[in-house]
Amino acid sequence: MEEKFDLMIIGAGAAGLTSGIYGSRAKLKTVILNEGAIGGQMVLTEEVANYPGVESTKGYMLANTMKLQAKNFGCKIKSNIKIEEYDISGELKTVKLEDGRIFQADAVILTPGGRPRTLNLPGEDRFKGTGISFCATCDGDFFTGREVIVVGGGNSALEEAVALTNFATKVTIVHQFDQFQAFEHAVKEAKNNPKIHFIMESELREFIGEEGLKKVMMEHLPTGKITEMNTDGVFIFVGYLPNTEILADFISLNESKEIIVDSDMKTNIPGVFAAGDCIAKKYRQVTTAVADGTIAALSAAEFLRN
Amino acid sequence: MKHLQTAIHEIETAAELEKIISENENVMVCCGRMGPMCIPVYDVMEELEEERENVKFYSMAFDAHEAAIIRNAPECRGFMGLPFTMYYKGGNVAQATTSIQNRQMITTILDEKF
């Protein structure tokens, strides 16, 4: 089954939704194909207080409003799909989904964003939702009065560990290096919290339990010594991966796997544009993603007119 | 009072849920909050609502007092991740899942159970 559009947008974060708004408002037949949650990283943000014109809002509410704006202008949104194959080098751009559906367009905007990195360890899938979580805000209260592990050493890991102390009696941060990558203030806040303990230079190796998670196997990296640790839950915050791997064969990426664009958000392929967190740039904010998405949509419209 | 900003109809009381599952053969209810683990499930349900006429799709606010009917369901024992998603067939629980589910996971359950 094939569906043909003027403009196809890959991703529904702030950049993709903005492109959807501008594209559909310009009367282009527009579709957004989205592999993750609509709103992308915005949805993970509890409070957005620096978006001009909006005094303070929740990330999901801002995302929901952008989604409604795009839909109201006629943009189609297909979310939680899995893209199997890209063929966007020619004049007619084609994307094939894992379920067999095929979408085609004359122009494409790539806004694939990123995704939470997982550990890919034995038991990780099995105990998702019964001991393993990726969201302290969502699931923290299930661990009230319990002991949990937080994996990671960046800002998210340390900030979420502090948040978890509102529920858990003990939070143990397990980190692979001997120091943290988080900002100093986040490290200081975690270190000053009496409920938080640290296990450095160590990595988890396996999740073990029956109906729910009961314990983890952990390796101390300098010595290779494996130890067992009982726990009620593990929260994993080990960063995000740009969703650009599948594009690497035909889109120019830099060494950080970010898409290289010019000031009009054009990539190396005619009719293919990119915007948002996936492109090579210094600042990643909702506002910059919105600006990128606007420029990409206007450039795509101009490309289609010509 | 409604708590969830989605296009899915929100069930507000246990009595309403009981009525819905008694009157409809196939019902999916996502019990969650407006968070990053729950929103993707609502998004999938919004799309499936247009595609699957044989299934009724509903949401329920996890923190609502009346949602205890799902929170405390025996099928949800041990669940520690939002959302709790219930699949009812002929008034009975056919399947319950915890935490985020993608479209493929949901459609697999719909195909197998309904």
If you had to describe this structure to a student in words, what would you say it looks like?
The complex is a heterodimer of chains A (306) and B (114). With 306 residues, chain A is α/β, with parallel strands linked by helices. Helix content of chain A is 22%, strand content 29%. Chain A contains six helices and 17 strands. In chain A, strands 1, 2, 3, 4, 5, 6 and 17 form a seven-stranded mixed β-sheet that branches. Chain A has a five-stranded parallel β-sheet with strand order 8-15-9-10-11, covered by helices on one side. A three-stranded antiparallel β-sheet of chain A has the order 12-13-14, with no helix packed on it. With 114 residues, chain B is of the alpha/beta class. Helix content of chain B is 33%, strand content 25%. The termini of chain B are far apart. The relative contact order of chain B is 0.23. The model of chain B has no long low-confidence stretch (mean pLDDT 94). Chain A binds chain B through residues 36-39, 43-44, 58, 60-61, 63-64, 78-82, 98-99, 128-135, 137-139, 142-143, 211-212, 233, and chain B through 5, 33-40, 43-44, 47, 77-82, 97-99, 102-104.
SSE blueprint:
The complex is a heterodimer of chains A (306) and B (114).
Chain A: E1 2-10, H1 14-25, E2 30-34, H2 59-72, E3 76-79, E4 83-87, E5 93-97, E6 102-110, E7 114-116, E8 132-133, H3 136-139, E9 147-151, H4 155-164, E10 170-174, H5 184-191, E11 196-199, E12 202-209, E13 213-220, E14 225-230, E15 233-236, E16 240-242, E17 272-274, H6 286-305
Helix pairs in contact in A: 1-2, 1-6, 4-5
Chain B: E1 9-11, H1 14-23, E2 26-32, H2 39-51, E3 56-61, H3 68-71, E4 84-89, E5 92-98, H4 103-113
Parallel strand pairs in B: 1-3, 2-3
Antiparallel strand pairs in B: 2-4, 4-5
